[in-house]
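Shipment paperwork, digital attachment
Item: protein structure file
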Amino acid sequence: MESLVIYNETNIYILSKLVALVRRETGHRHRLNNQDAITALIRDAAGSADERIHSYYRRFLENLTPEQLTTFKQAGIDIPRELDRKPGLIPSGQSRQFGYSTMKTG
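Attachment content:
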């Protein structure tokens, strides 16, 4: 049985946009009914030269949790270096709050 991966609302929206854009470019219709189908869609998006597809692909990766990034990396998806060093993926002193507590108001 394949493991269940749960995506946030933003990534579900991005996946639906990628389905339409990749279908327009390749003619292949991806379904989002299992993890293998999603991985195939992401693989096609990663290899696309289309600027819009690549933009949605990067936004998708930016919104993944470190565990989800690791899952895609193990599936053979190339994760850009700057996203591979996301806080939490490699232990670091950087807070996951991304500095909100240090913002000045007023």
